[in-house]
Amino acid sequence: MSRKRIVAGNWKMNLLRDEAKALVSEITAMLSDEEMRNPEIILFPSFLHIHLAVSMVAGDPRIHVGGQNCADKRMGAFTGEVSAAMLRSFGCSHVLIGHSERRIHFNETDSLLASKITLVLSEKLTAVFCIGENRSERESGQAFDAVQRQLTEGLFHLEPEKIRECILAYEPVWAIGTGLTATPEQAQEMHAFIRGAVENRYGSEISNSLSILYGGSCNEKNAASLFSLPDVDGGLIGGASLKSRSFVDIVKSLPS
Ligand code: PEP
């Protein structure tokens, strides 16, 4: 079964207005020169840059824009928060849920993420749900248990028709922003495990159609070997998504 091949760029809390504008303009210009077989590209700028990014990519069906986070409430007196519906109304199609930086620095728990993802999907946004073990879990042989727990408690409450609206991103925490990339063997082993867990819960038709991205120090040098693995359907890119040439080269590493 063919699955969507996706490269997503998570800009985190980087780039001032003009820098964001320059990055989107360089990416769109470079992509227009490339012969590419419909890759799906998702940009995750800061909330403030979403309007700009959406207006700049309008008309290019390959490029989508999403929020890096959203509130776990629909609306109301929650100062400083941004709702899923607001993201939708500004032209976002995707939201990152459960990035490890949200789990670690903002204490986002599996149960909070479970309610956020339900809300996001009810607003007709696609959730990119991030999971991954930390370094001590990897070193103590508990990586698979940690990932299974995140799936069971954060995702597997969803009905089958809702899980189809999700993309998964396996991001080992020890690989994010560290320059330590999972080896192809480690990545394939965990992606196959995740697909197997989805199959156990939802059956093979759904598990075979779900895109699972790899994230963690993925760059233009290692992307091709990661993206060629049978259960890796693309990447969620942090640092390397801030450089247009690197990001477009990563997109070009997707197999046809
Ligand atoms: C990320 O933040 O999702 C990420 C994968 O970061 P980096 O590529 O910088 O490791």
Structural features, described:
The protein has 256 residues and is of the alpha/beta class. Helices cover 43% and strands 15% of the residues. The protein has helices spanning 17-33, 50-57, 84-89, 100-105, 110-122, 135-139, 143-154, 160-163, 184-202, 204-209, 223-227, 244-252, and strands spanning 6-10, 40-44, 63-67, 94-97, 126-131, 166-170, 212-215, 234-237. The chain has an eight-stranded parallel barrel with strand order 1-2-3-4-5-6-7-8, surrounded by five helices. α1 runs parallel beside α2, α5 crosses α7 and α7 (143-154) runs parallel beside α9 (184-202). It is globular, with a radius of gyration of 17 Å. The relative contact order is 0.16. Phosphoenolpyruvate (PEP) binds at residues 10, 171, 176-177, 215-218, 236-240.
Quick recap:
With 256 residues, the protein is an alpha/beta fold.
Oligomeric state as shown: single chain
Overall pLDDT, averaged? Answer: 96
Q: Report the order of strands and helices.
A: EHEHEHEHHEHHHEHHEHEH
Largest sheet: 8 strands, parallel, barrel
Low-confidence stretches: none
Q: Give the structural class.
A: alpha/beta
Distance between termini? Answer: 14 Å
List of distinct ligands in this structure? phosphoenolpyruvate
* DSSP summary: helix tally: 12
Radius of gyration: 17 Å
Helical residues, percent:
40-55%
Strand content: 5-15%
- Numbering strands along the chain, what is their spatial order in the largest sheet? 1-2-3-4-5-6-7-8
Strand tally: 8
Question: What would you call the shape?
Answer: globular
